[in-house]
Amino acid sequence: MTQDAIEIEGLKKTYSGGKEALKGINLNVPRGSVFGLLGPNGAGKSTLINILAGLVTKSAGKVTIWGWDQDVNPRQSRASIGVMPQELNLDPFFTPRGALEVQAGLYGVPKARRRSDEILEMIGLTDKAEAYARTLSGGMRRRLLLGKALVHRPHVLVLDEPTAGVDIELRQMLWTNVRKLNRDEGMTIILTTHYLEEAEEMCDEIAIINHGEVVARDSTRNLLGQLDAKTMVIQPDTEVGPLPEVEGIGVSTREDGTLAVSYRARQTSAEDVLSMLRDNGVRIRDVRTEQADLEDVFLSLTRSA
């Protein structure tokens, strides 16, 4: 049995009119991981997700979900994945319990094995179980979308911009549930998000897509390690005059009067920076460092691509 939840080989998608959304993507998602799929608008993320969900027909390539080839065993591969879409596509005349029951029926889940009440409790909608979906708030509807994606106990859960436009309470509830599903049930999670700090905190591995191609794919730690730029923020004890230019070290003054000293950790040590400041008469009251975050990596990779 393969160790990957999803294997994608040479995946291409060209829409009518000649727009090439995916240009031969190769990607694997390890089982039991929380995997981030990042990219700017129009990069091809939604097309890729819709192909995985069976909603869009690929132009070329091979997709395997939980060991099932999408072309050879479409029913089994589709049953192995659950998708929480970005759009709030709910029937307004169904209650949350009714929506879960219908969704379970569509996947062929026998009544004895359905767990609608368990899911309603998990997503915090037990008290709204019999309310029409049209009366639910936007946050509640998004919770229901998560519940619908879980009715058939998928091995892989895809979350497409799950926290876009939601409040902090809902975001925390969602991530608590995602961590529990990943930890307790071994569910593989694929996350797309525009909140890069969210991906940095949640994801074990990340792939960055730009213009229909994978421009980076690595562990979150390794991606952050690609940029060794650091900034030392100095609170001087007295006013500082102009400092001489030193190769590998850049100095700027921020609005609050602190000095932002940028340098490359592989080329210059923190001691070299402090020595340069002391040699130029800078008395240091306080010091802290800032490191590159995922946003810096993302911007660097997408711009270079």
UniProtKB/TrEMBL annotation:
Key words, A-Z: ATP-binding, Nucleotide-binding, Transport
Any one Pfam family match given in the protein's UniProt record, by short name: ABC_tran
Domain ABC transporter: 6-236
Superkingdom of the source species: Bacteria
UniProt keyword ATP-binding present: yes
Keyword Iron among record annotations: no
One Gene Ontology term of the molecular function aspect: ATP binding
Protein name in UniProt: Multidrug ABC transporter ATP-binding protein
